[in-house]
Structure formats: C-alpha cells, structure tokens
# Entry
Amino acid sequence: MQTTQQKPGQRIAIIGSGAAGLTCTHLLQPHHHITLFEAADRIGGHTNTITLTQGPDTGLRIDTGFIVMNHRNYPHLTQLFDTLNVPLQDSDMSFGYHDLPSGLQYCGTGINGLFAQRRNLIQPRFHRLIREITRFFNIASADALQGLDPTETLGEYLTRHQFSQDFIDHHLIPMGSAIWSTPCDAMLAFPAHSFLNFFRNHGLLGIKDRPQWRTVQGGSQTYIEKMRPSWNNVTLVTRAQINAIHRQQQQIQIERNGQTETFDHVIIATHSDQALALLSDPDETETKTLGAWQYAKSKTYLHSDASVMPPLRRVWSSWNFQRINGNQTALTYHMNRLQRLATQTDYFVSLDLPHPPQDIHYETLYEHPMFTREALTHRPRLQTHNGTRNTWFAGAYLGNGFHEDAVRSAVHVAQQFGISL
# Structure
C-alpha cells in the first residue's frame, strides 16, 4: 500500500456511501475537503433501516441489510461505534433449516430444536447427519490451525474428507450460503482455508466459545445519524451518475453530467466491478484484481408473511434457510428475534424467494461478493497497489465481505493519510 504525507486541506472524492465510504468520510473530513458521491437517493448502502409508515407499528425501525455484529470479530466497527456512542443490544443468532422436498426441519437451539421433528429421534439418517457435524467440527478445527492449501476449494475439501451429501446439502452449505448470501453451488467454489478460518474465528466449529451477537438499538441507521452532525467539511452528492474517473498528472478528474471536477485523491468505495467500470484507464493490476470478483444479486423483501417460515414453530430461528428444490433456496431473517422487536406482528426479511411474499413493507436488491480462488489469489496485489496514482480502494470485498471488513479497509486507507480511528 502506498503512503502519503499530504498536508491538510486536500480535495478528496469518495465514491460510494456504504460502510467503507462512510467511514472514510468520517475519518478524513476533519482534515480534508470531502465530496461524497452516492448513486442512490440515500446514503448507507447495506445500512438500510426502514421506518414503517402504516399499521399498528407505525414508526418502528427495522433493518434490512446490515443487522448484527459482535465485539470479538468486529473490532474496528466496535471502536467506531464506541467513539460515536452507538447503543447496542444483545441479539439471537440461531439457525433453522427446512427442506421442502423431504420435509426435513431442525434448528440449533438445543435438543428440542435439533429434534423438533420427533420422528428424527428414531431416524438413523438424521443421527448420521449429527455425527457428520461432530466429525466436521473435529477435522476442520485441526485443519484450520494447521493451515490448508490456499488453492483448495470447499467442494474439494469436503470430497477429500468424504463428507456425506446429506451433511453438505442439509447443513454446511446452507450455513455458508446464509452467512455470505451466496448461492449454494457457488459456495462449493469458496476457498476452504478462508471458510474454515472464518468458522473457527466465529466459534462455529463447536457449540461453545461463540461470541455474543448484537444489534444497534433503533436500527443500524442510528450510527449514520450520529456521524453526520460532525461533517462540517463534507459535500454530499446523491443521485450522482459518474461517467468516468480520469487520472492525469497526480490529479483526479471526476466526469459526470457532462462536467468535470478535479480532486487530489479519489477513494473508490463501491463494489469491485463497479470500481473497475468507473476507471477510464485501469492498469493491469486494477483490471485483474477488480475484475476477478463476481456478485450475487438477492431480491430482498421486508414483509409479514409467515408462510415463508418453517411449518413447525419450534424450528423458527433468527436465520431460516429454506431449500425449495435443487439449487433453488431462500433465506429469511426473523427480525423480531434479531432486533428484539416487542410487537404483535412478525416481521421478516427474506432473500431470493421464488415469488413475492404477501404483506410487503419494503423491497430492494442487494449484491454480495462471491469468494473464489481467483478473486482471493489476485486480492493481495490490490492491497499493495492501493494509493497508486492517488487512487484508493475500500470495501468489504477486501476482507470477508462483512461490515467489519468494509470499516477496516477504510481505516487502513485513512492511516495512509496519517489519520487513525
């Protein structure tokens, strides 16, 4: 990564107002002149809290994108929230599974949830699944500590250790798909070492030592509301349609709406494919590293249609994975559990449903990075290349794809300007 000892008062363009762009803006604006460009009509990206405008819960704020964090695995976000005095509350992070073709249902909330279908008490096939989960915990824990070939995919790893198809289809891949909002077939291409390290760090290779997950009281939008009053050196441009970024003689030219604005630096805090498309003259490193990423698109609904949940109420969890048929799956978050909503009405956030639910309160489209061998192989080059030609990149794709990773990438950029969180 390049470093800069630029004097205060530089003109910096920040493109994208997700967690990375917001954090860069917040850290740099006391010392530099910031113009924050956002293509949408609101800032926040996946920090997207919806306020209900009708019904008995009018005024209730419900998250639809970024929902949970924990102090152990989100140290930079924790520090940011501490400086902003963002109020947090404990959350529930249970996982439930429902396979429509077979009718299988279970969840991880103790024996009653695991054997929510009482017939599974005497089903040898289900007991084999439980044994496979335990075997995976043991093998993966050892492999995560010893290290793996970084080129081995999760699919290759599971084949090498001869894990059963039931374990793959009805447990591990659904969990991975839910965590990364990635299609099940794409999860098999996920680098195994990254997958296992993430599971180990988050206490997912056992039933103990799991972190306490938390949500932001009043919705994640709260932290943006606490940031903005101090933004005295920020020009915010929403609905910004940027045509191109030109880099000439250590100057950055942002072309939009037939006009050009000049800056000293640009921080591109968008998805990697969007970043590449904005550059008028990407070099080889930028082309290979940014172009290696693909994104999964998920149609997302905030609604109150309980028919998307498992038929057995005792299987209901915070995260509810539904296998519809073949590779068609859906994921539903039970927001009452996640955000501790004290309402009579159930509120759900569902991704990738085969058809729209009933009683929709809000809908949008989210995109999430898909982790592949190619993307992770090229990524270190971008991190060392960062700052070349006064061009900086920040975003969740530079880490594990989560809010913490976006914030951490922004902190790393700010540090090159001599600014710490």
Remarks:
- Residues 94-209+295-370 form one domain.
